[in-house]
Design goal:
Elements lengths: L5 H9 L2 E2 H7 L6 E4 L2 E4 L2 E4 L4 E5 L6 E7 L11 E10 L6 E9 L7 E5 L1
Parallel strand pairs: 1-2
Antiparallel strand pairs: 2-9, 3-4, 5-6, 6-7, 7-8, 8-9
The structure holds zinc ion.
Length: 118
């Protein structure tokens, strides 16, 4: 990143949060260091789409529930920037949906990536 010293970059990366935590609770508009973003599927690399906990406001739920990913696989490339739309559906009621828009910048397969909701 322009203007950052290596030491600052390392400090920033040391604050990396798990991808699941990022999806669940990081507010939009903040670039965050994240880990476990990439899911390896044989020769393919995809955006990891773990279950996430969200409040479900459907009448039969009205509480925090597990949501599962409900979309197609999202290919991801190392060293690229891209935007993704992750669609989730409540496991309990099967009705309530969440759409999470994320910008992801990948740097290496196993390292820390950058991500921001928008
Ligand atoms: Zn629900």
């Amino acid at each position: 990143m322009v203007g950052r010293t290596n030491a600052t970059q390392l400090e920033w990366e040391a604050q990396a949060i798990p991808w699941t935590t990022f999806l669940e609770s990081t507010p939009p508009g903040r670039m965050s260091p994240v880990e476990s973003v990439i899911e390896v599927d044989g020769p393919f690399l995809n955006v990891s789409t773990p279950d996430i906990r969200q409040f479900c406001d459907y009448p039969s739920c009205q509480c925090e529930q597990l949501f599962r990913y409900d979309g197609i696989r999202l290919p991801i490339s190392i060293g690229k920037k891209a935007d993704y739309l992750l669609t989730y559906i409540c496991r309990a009621c099967g009705v309530s949906r969440r759409a999470i828009k994320v910008h992801i910048e990948t740097h290496s397969l196993l390292g820390i990536q950058k991500a921001m909701k928008y």
